[in-house]
């Protein structure tokens, strides 16, 4: 049965509810004047490189839920991605390369926001919008291209704004994420195409 392009009402309610809870949690943090403490707590855990390895892999559930046309799944994945930087405990001793990478990242985020920095920041929501649209429309090849462009852009950003040592500390996580995402998406594409070919020409069903 062909799936509808329109999200189900229950799915939309779940997506709206999940997003509302996240906004309420953010509002509580701001209202209780604990923003600085929370940022410091989260930033310390961001030094754990396990979060670096996990983050690129969020493309996979995002693509899956977009393909299944599940708004709730998409929202849940984006919230998980946003919070993944503090999933893991703060390391007792972060390597100098990791410290250099995060120092460059923090300086970039806290420096004056010029027009070109705003435009670069807008690439993030635009990337997820393009990725979601590609998989929602079942354009897996275009989705694969967006995933590769996003990860390669992130790699380029680290080498442009971080020190060489800092960029190299980030590179293994980015490359591994790229390889895993490419391998799984290409596998799915191959399975779908194989299934389509089998459906078009089944043995013993040819008629003269």
What does this structure look like?
The model has no long low-confidence stretch (mean pLDDT 79). This protein has one domain. It has 208 residues and is mainly alpha-helical. The chain is globular and about 50 Å long. The protein contains nine helices and no strands. α8 (140-161) packs antiparallel against α9. The longest helix is centred in the last third of the chain and has 37 residues, at 164-200.
Topology:
Elements: H1 9-31, H2 35-46, H3 50-54, H4 59-67, H5 71-83, H6 96-110, H7 115-136, H8 140-161, H9 164-200
Distance between the termini: 29 Å
H/E element sequence:
HHHHHHHHH
What proportion of the residues form beta strands (DSSP E)? under 5%
Q: What global shape is seen?
A: globular
Radius of gyration: 20 Å
Mean pLDDT: 79
Helix content: over 70%
Report the strand count.
0
Domain count, please report it.
1
Query: Class by helix and strand content?
Result: mainly alpha
Which ranges are low-confidence, i.e. pLDDT below 50, for 5 or more consecutive residues? none
How many helical stretches? 9
**Main sheet characteristics:** none
Which structural traits does this protein have?
208 residues, mainly alpha, 9 helices, 0% strand, 76% helix
């Amino acid at each position: 049965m062909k799936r509808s392009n329109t999200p189900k009402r229950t799915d939309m309610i779940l997506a709206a509810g999940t997003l509302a809870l996240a906004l309420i949690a953010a509002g509580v943090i701001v209202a209780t004047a604990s923003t600085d403490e929370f940022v410091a707590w989260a930033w310390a855990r961001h030094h754990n490189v396990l979060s670096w390895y996990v983050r690129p892999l969020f493309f996979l559930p995002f693509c899956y839920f977009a393909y299944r046309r599940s708004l709730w799944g998409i929202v849940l994945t984006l919230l998980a991605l946003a919070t993944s930087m503090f999933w893991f405990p703060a390391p007792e001793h972060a390597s100098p390369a990791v410290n250099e990478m995060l120092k460059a990242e923090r300086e970039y985020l806290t420096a004056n926001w010029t027009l070109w920095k705003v435009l670069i920041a807008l690439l993030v929501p635009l990337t997820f919008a393009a990725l979601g649209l590609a998989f929602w429309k079942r354009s897996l090849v275009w989705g694969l291209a967006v995933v590769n462009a996003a990860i390669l852009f992130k790699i380029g950003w680290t080498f442009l704004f971080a020190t060489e040592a800092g960029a190299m500390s980030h590179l293994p996580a980015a490359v591994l994420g790229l390889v895993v995402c490419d391998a799984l998406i290409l596998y799915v594409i191959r399975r779908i195409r194989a299934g389509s070919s089998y459906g078009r020409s089944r043995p013993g069903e040819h008629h003269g």
